[in-house]
Amino acid sequence: MGGVNIYCGSFVGEDKSGTKFETVLSEVAANDGSANTKKIILGIMESINDADDHILISAEDAKELIFPLTEYLQRLRDDISAFDMRQYCAIDLLKGCEVVVEEKEPIALVW
Q1: Angstrom distance (rounded) from CA 19 to CA 67
Q2: What pLDDT is stored for residue 25 in this prediction?
Q3: Fewer CB atoms inside 10 A, N or C side of the chain?
């Protein structure tokens, strides 16, 4: 898969900001104790197998990811001194999840 872009309603992420989304979601699942978060992320990861050029994260699932993504992004900022691609992805993925609350559109990860 090449670069991945993040879209949600009126929100368009930075160019190829979603490229590390699989890493980010795996790390969120590993660090969040919630069974619901792990279930959502597993569903997202499984949808990759059937995808041609994009996957969708439902508005309901995206809303549930706001808190774990916020915690993950804070841990990244605390743990690493230099900006890395995981932060780039987490920032736009979180913003997409926040837009979901207002616009009720799914998040599209497009490659």
Answers
A1: 21
A2: 97
A3: N
Token pair 């490229």 is found at 19
The answer to whether 47 and 106 have CB atoms below 8 angstroms apart is no
Residue 91 vs residues 17, 52, 59: alpha-carbon distances, Å: 9, 25, 17
* 16 Ramachandran zone, left/alpha/beta (phi>0; psi -120 to 50): left
Each residue's pLDDT tens digit, 53-82: 999 999 999 999 999 999 999 999 988 777
**Helices marked H in 8-58:** 21-31, 35-48
Give phi and psi for 11, each to the nearest 5: -90, 130
